[in-house]
Amino acid sequence: MNNSLEYDAVLMLEDGSKFHGTGFGKPSTVVGEVVFTTGMVGYTESLTDPSFGGQLLSFTYPLIGNYGVPDYSNCDEYSLPAHFESSKIQPSGVIVNELCTSPNHWSSTKTFDEWLKSEEITGISNIDTRSLTLKIRESGVMMGAISYDPNNSINPDSVLSNAKSYDTFEFFKNVSTPSPQTYGNSDDMIVILDFGVKNGILRNVLKRNYSATVVPYNYNLDQIMEYNPKGIIISNGPGDPQRCTDYLDTIKQICNSPIPTLGICLGHQLISLSLGASTYKLQYGHRGQNKSCKDLISGRSYVTSQNHGYAVDIDSLSKTDLKPWFVNLDDNSLEGVRHINHSCIAVQFHPEAHPGPYDTSYVFDEFFNMVVGDSN
Predict the structure, then answer these.
(1) Which of its termini does the chain have fewer beta carbons within 10 Å around, N or C?
(2) CATH architecture label of 172-375
């Protein structure tokens, strides 16, 4: 920790710890749950991942911004932003060790700092992120605040005074689509129940020659069935899955139907909860692109991309019609389930990657094999 008075920003944790640093982005004070990601690349994808909604994201990789930020208008073959997972930065604040102000990449149109300024996001640099990460690993995730004041009138002791409990927030309501959105022009439709869907999931639907309709999180089964879906995806999203209990009846109906269903990240937790399992909060979560998981059916291990702070209790599956599919090789937590009716599967990690390895993209192949089989 550096207490140099020349610094104009401070990160304060709920345990009273203070990390003084240099502010960038929008001068402001922001509050959120402090989490870290271990990814070495992919900061544009990570920062636009809706699952980070409302958090203060710390990058363990020491240099951020070295390849700059491309433009949102740089789209892929599906007319989706090629290097972003949504249309804006999702965390409330950003924490880095060293901020690169002179990026070098052919696609860069602005610096990391300019990007945060343009979206009114607050950041802090020159932070000992290794020390911060060790603290979170030992003590668990905790609330924190970044206060950036160029006039150096920060009162660190008052920074957290207005903080609310993170667990009471329903961030998924802020990142879900307000109205149905359809992508693609195929007659074969996949409906995505949106708790904070990533563009990477849409890409995996579109590249298999299906259309995707993204519907709000509170759609019921009758509303979903109006689209005559060939399959349903329950998306990823931010926050505590137990804040979504009002929507579990719909998800249970989906899972117990013959419609092929895939849950991803938060979707995995919601499917499990809807069928009688329980969830718990991890001490510091799994966030990064280097998380090892084992497929219990094939016996093979894979490196996965992950972003979650909660997990499904594997022992609670005994009360459900779900069977374990994947487990985490670091802590043996549950990473995937299969329904005994063979029409519903779910994974805790991100098979679409973005950023991260594509080792487990075969999960989408399994889902679409179910879709094709159901159509025959």
Answers:
(1) C
(2) 3-Layer(aba) Sandwich (3.40)
